[in-house]
């Protein structure tokens, strides 16, 4: 075999190796992109708000503020029990309900309703909110987020949406 033929074979071999690498990369990308997209899509997708039932209206006492639980508006397929969230629901009148986010407006810790003091208290950094959800003391930059509420066929429903936990 002459030197020229050997050089030509090497070049042909190198060409096919490179072509193989390029085709493998393209095939790998064609398989990987949809898989990665399906994994990341639930994280970046902005879910539409949904009405979630939290109980019959007649089951709530006027003037009381109680904790109600419902499924988050954007549960990830693998969220399990962490998809469950909560709100403080108050029956302010016969057909008037107010739902406060359970998450503090500072850094998102769950606030507690202290009925005797008529205050929401945050255990993390001492944030305090009046009964209307406005800030009474501490670091929260704004009041508690309020969910829209409606009564539908006797059921109290909360319009879920991703909560703007912090504004800072
Ligand atoms: S998270 Fe509530 S005061 Fe900081």
Account of the 3D structure:
- The chain is of the alpha+beta class and 168 residues long.
- The protein folds into two domains: 1-45; 50-160, Rieske [2Fe-2S] iron-sulphur domain (Rieske Iron-sulfur Protein, 3-layer Sandwich).
- The protein contains one helix and eleven strands.
- The strands form three sheets. Strands 2-3-4-9 form a four-stranded antiparallel beta sheet, with no helix packed on it. A four-stranded antiparallel beta sheet has the order 5-6-7-8, with no helix packed on it.
- β3 and β4 form a beta hairpin.
- FE2/S2 (inorganic) cluster binds next to loops.
- The site of FE2/S2 (inorganic) cluster (FES) has 11 residues, from loops.
Key structural traits:
single chain; 168 residues; alpha+beta; Rieske Iron-sulfur Protein; 2 domains; 4-stranded antiparallel beta sheet; 1 helix; 32% strand; binds FE2/S2 (inorganic) cluster
Biggest sheet record: 4 strands, antiparallel
CATH topology of the largest domain: Rieske Iron-sulfur Protein
What share of residues is helical?
A: 25-40%
Tell me which CATH architecture of the largest domain applies here. Answer: 3-layer Sandwich
Q: Could you spell the SSE succession in H and E letters? A: HEEEEEEEEEEE
Stretches where pLDDT is under 50 for at least 5 consecutive residues are: none
What compounds sit in this structure?
A: FE2/S2 (inorganic) cluster
Give the full name of the CATH homologous superfamily of the largest domain.
Answer: Rieske [2Fe-2S] iron-sulphur domain
Count structural domains. Answer: 2
Shape designation: elongated
**Head-to-tail CA distance between termini:** 75 Å
Q: Average pLDDT, to the nearest integer?
A: 87
